[in-house]
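Study the following:
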Amino acid sequence: MEINGQLALTVLMGVFLVAVAAWLTRVENWRSYTPLASGGGAYGQESGHAHEKPGGLIRWFTTVDHKDIGMLYGLYGVIAFLVGGAMVMIMRVELADPGMTLISNTFYNSLLTSHGITMLFLFGTPIIAAFSNYFIPLVIGADDMAFPRINAIAFWLLPPAALLIWAGFLIPTGDIIPAQTAWTMYTPLSAGVGNGNQANAGVDLMLLGLHLSGVSATMGSINFIATIFTERAEEVTWANLDIFSWTILTQSGLILFAFPLLGSAMVMLLADRNFGTVFFAGEGGAILWQHLFWFFGHPEVYILVLPPMGIVSYVLPRFSGRRLFGFKFVVYSTLAIGVLSFGVWAHHMFATGIDPRLRASFMAVSMAIAIPSAVKTFNWITTMWNGRIRLTTPMLFCIGFVSNFIIGGVTGVFLASIPIDLVLHDTYYVVGHFHYIVMGAIAFAGFAGLYYWYPIFTGRMYQRKLGKWHFWLWMVGTNITFFAMILLGYGGMPRRYATYLPQFITLHQIATLGALLLLVGGFIWLYNFIISWLEGPVIESGDPWNLKEDGLYTAEWEWFDRKLQTKITDGGEQQDVATDGGHESDESDS
């Protein structure tokens, strides 16, 4: 009976997909694509085939304009960030007490799993795609992305991916409960062998959702590579390609090699779970999964961190009053990180008993990859050295990025040493190190970009004081939370445990206090962005940051200024302008 039900559901889904494809072919002629005349060329190209965008929701469901898709990615990423943040706040409040007081062990493990996957796959990669979709065509002088329709399809794969990943929380049934595998999905736990909890359909739905997100990222990476290679304006050569585009190009190459491997491993895991295969269920299967997963998993860290490095390399010089120091070395270090990232995966496996000679080689490469990261760090510091520093909110987040990245990077070098890793592996030290990078660095760089380009995509300026409150609450909260975790790791507190010994209670409560500061800062940021979008001062200048004074005016602001002037010439309402007129450059200079 159960088999018949599953067969009927499969047939129904097949019919549904065919119906969707048939409907889409009737919507318009897929063979012809005419880019919008307002489409984004930073150097003023016009396609000559202008057509007006539809209004309302239809515009957002059917758009192929790279700027609209960038906005959709941004909205999606913010929603995922809020969901992932809510999950971890429940966990941290629970951890304020050694015993289980608010939630069950099972629910804690579900939150732990979904928080990691949500932040990495549903927030990290899409929020980077938001920046790159909106600004890459503008800064390289392209009319749009190379494949606008593929660009749209890549985004629309993500909402169903999120629903599948969160299905265990959304579907109120005993047959589907949230996955409790942790974000690494280690076998045999995730294979459901001898574990009834992991044999449920919630794990299968999560794996399918992850697979969809991987397909989306791969399609996007192909698009960015094609766009940067083929759609650049004549004025944009490899020699003067901006640093953000270099990092996106490198990231796209990493995605192209890493994500298909993860997809293949998850297909094998799904086969083990549902069709009786033994890819990971047999002898050595657990080690095989770790090799396949971490061959993707460590490049994934650089997939997430390279574009934020590009944002900092792009934004930080604007408020230092000078160009990026050692531009070529920053580019070379980016490419070096991209290559070396595929040679370090087994440092996650030092404690598994693999061959000591293999461990030694991976230790050497893991330490070597710190060198190009250090090159970038020294270049950022030297760019600020003797510069005309303006402590705007974007600049504060850039400086916060650099300082947190140093702490996260140095703690990571210790983990690359085999003897130290054997002591600290699977403790809260690893959690603290990792979150210094993903929260203290990647998220800080993301907010530097959001504040810096806020005038372009809203046409208004945010409230400057609230922006600085956001920064300081997050800077203090990040260091309180994650440094406490590093100390917990030194004390021997294992990670991923919902209960703990009483001697760890003080540091856990300190970490929870820091998390509450992050929560307050997050509310301030959300309020500031929404209210300023609706009521903030309208931008009236194409140079809201006074970049022309230092000769640092860039292509996206030129496009912005032309758009503003066109609106004024056409007699449009200034409120409708996608430009910006409040000068946060008036913020404190030092």
Remarks:
- The domain at 65-300 is CATH 1.20.210.10 (Cytochrome C Oxidase; Chain A).
- The longest strand covers residues 538-541.
- Strands lie at 538-541.
